[in-house]
Design goal:
binds zinc ion, L-fuculose-1-phosphate Aldolase, single chain, alpha+beta, 8 helices, about 40% helix
Length: about 240
């Protein structure tokens, strides 16, 4: 373990957790951010149930990809197994966020995927944000947090996690991810924003259809992928 790298990761994850709170995406302590150092396979994650004003970088709990706590007295977030399983499967991601933010959770509770109604959505998500199946009884009785990841991974057999960096877990709430913890928080904020916009649009025009494909593709692909041209060269663009 490279100490300097791990301290930097803890600092990054701590800052990302604070950002999540600042953006108003956290209700009470329902919200957590993690990050991974791919070289060592070490994950830093928010401790379980601790109020945000009591957090500090060194309190970010370190766990490995087999769920072992490597350092610290605090218990890691209760959602740790979900995060870790996603890191194991989605090999290109560096950060994960889970919240119960109001509008995204409203869609998750309604058991509905979030259709792409406009370019704000298409800038981040290349198509609808899927909603998982409702968890079965036997899954709830097994390892609940692992099964939450199973639900997500089953859903993403039909989607590309790099083109759709988020999901609505049925009856529960959203998970988002990105190349860094900060990016994952940004995706969480955008998911909440487009979830709210979608409800407003549907209020104005019930039965509204999704954005047309050419417009959706244009917006996503000018920002992402090989031929992206949005923003300044050499800079990471949002
Ligand atoms: Zn939750």
């Amino acid at each position: 373990m490279n100490r300097t790298t791990i301290r930097r990761l803890q600092e990054q994850v701590y800052q990302a957790n604070l950002e999540l709170k600042e953006y108003g995406l956290v209700t009470a302590t329902f919200g957590n951010v993690s990050g991974i150092d791919r070289a060592s396979g070490i994950v830093a994650i928010k401790p379980s149930g601790l109020p945000y004003d009591q957090l500090s970088p060194e309190k970010m709990v370190l766990v490995d990809l087999q769920y072992n706590v490597l350092e610290g007295e605090l218990k890691p977030s209760s959602d740790t197994k979900t995060h870790v399983m996603l890191y194991r499967s989605f090999e290109q991601i560096g950060g994960i966020v889970h919240t119960h933010s109001t509008y995204a959770t409203a869609w998750a509770q309604a058991l509905k995927p979030l259709p792409c109604y406009g370019t704000t959505h298409a800038d981040i998500f290349h198509g609808q944000v899927p909603c998982t199946a409702v968890m079965r009884e036997d899954q709830i009785e097994r390892d609940y947090e692992e099964e939450t990841a199973v639900q997500i991974l089953e859903t993403f057999q039909l989607y590309d996690y790099q083109q759709i960096p988020g999901v609505l877990v049925a009856s529960h709430g959203p998970f988002t991810w990105g190349q860094t913890p900060e990016k994952a928080v940004y995706h969480s904020l955008m998911l909440e924003t487009i979830a709210e916009m979608a409800i407003l649009s549907l209020n104005i025009t019930p039965g509204l259809k999704a954005i047309k494909k050419s417009l959706m593709d244009k917006h996503f692909l000018r920002k992402h992928g090989r031929n992206a041209y949005y923003g300044q060269p050499g800079k990471e663009n949002r």
